[in-house]
Amino acid sequence: MTKSEVLKDWVEDYSGPLLRRAVYLLSDKEEAEDVVQEVFIAAYSSYESFEGKSNVLTWLTTILNRKVADFYRKKYKSEPYIRFDHFFNESGSWKHDDVLNDWSISGEESQMLDDEDFNKILQDCIENLPVRWKIPLKLYYLEEKKAPEVSQELNISTTNLWKVLQRSRMQLRECLDFNWFAKL
Fold first, then answer.
1. For 174, how many CA atoms within 13 A lie in the half-sphere containing its CB?
2. Would you list the DSSP string of 80-139?
3. Which of 2, 19, 38, 171 has the fewest CB atoms within 10 Å, measured from its CB?
4. Do residues 78 and 135 lie in contact, with contact meaning Cβ atoms separated by under 8 Å?
């Protein structure tokens, strides 16, 4: 088989799994389709370097992960300034002290992650975060990458990452308070 024929088979066989993974990582089907297309372009360009020691899907997924990291790195650096006046007043104090209060979780509420409605609201809250907060949150908590790895992928300091994650958690908490806990 020629290189073109092999790549054509790969596109047919692996587009679905790669697209599902990309949509999960990017939360945007159009962006995911573009990244998957870039994966196949990169695979075509570096076809000769594929030695067949791993599964084709494993190799393509590795390329996908690198393309997603490049996408986030580029997007993270190009997003506009994030305003903090939602949380802080002009003097730098908290606008709402209630963000510091603990949630009390009963036995029933500890099963929230099994609740389809809660998961939908949580996903919506995550998707409504500013991209500069959503990207690190997804990489750190959902992809379970270590802080140094996330910092390196996004080209930010670990200290900055912790601050971004803290702000993300506060925003998620407020969203969940309003959209879930207030309705219990």
1. 15
2. PPPP-TTTB-TTS-BS-GGGGSPPP--TTGGGGGG-HHHHHHHHHHHHTS-HHHHHHHII
3. 2
4. no
**Tokens coding 35:** 């990244």
55: exposed, middle or buried (C-beta count within 10 Å: 0-12, 13-18, 19+)?
Answer: exposed
- pLDDT tens, 4-43? 888 899 999 999 999 999 988 888 889 899 999 999 999 9
State whether the Cα torsion 148-153-156-160 is positive or negative. Answer: negative
Summarised one tens digit per residue, pLDDT across range 137-167 is: 988 988 888 999 988 888 888 888 898 899 8
CA angle centred on 135, ends 130 and 136, rounded to 5°: 110
- Angle, to 10 degrees, between the axis of helix 158-179 and the axis of helix 147-154? 100
Look up residue 23 and give its two tokens. 């949509």
Amino acid at 54: S
Q: Which two tokens stand for residue 145?
A: 């990458």
- Residue 176 φ/ψ, nearest 5 degrees: -65, -40
> How many helices, marked H, and strands, marked E, lie in the chain?
7, 0
How much is the CA Rg of the chain, to the nearest whole Å? 20
* 10-26 as b/e: b if 16+ CB within 10 A: bbeebbeebbebbbebb
Which residue type occupies 124?
D
Which two three-digit tokens encode residue 33? 């389709």
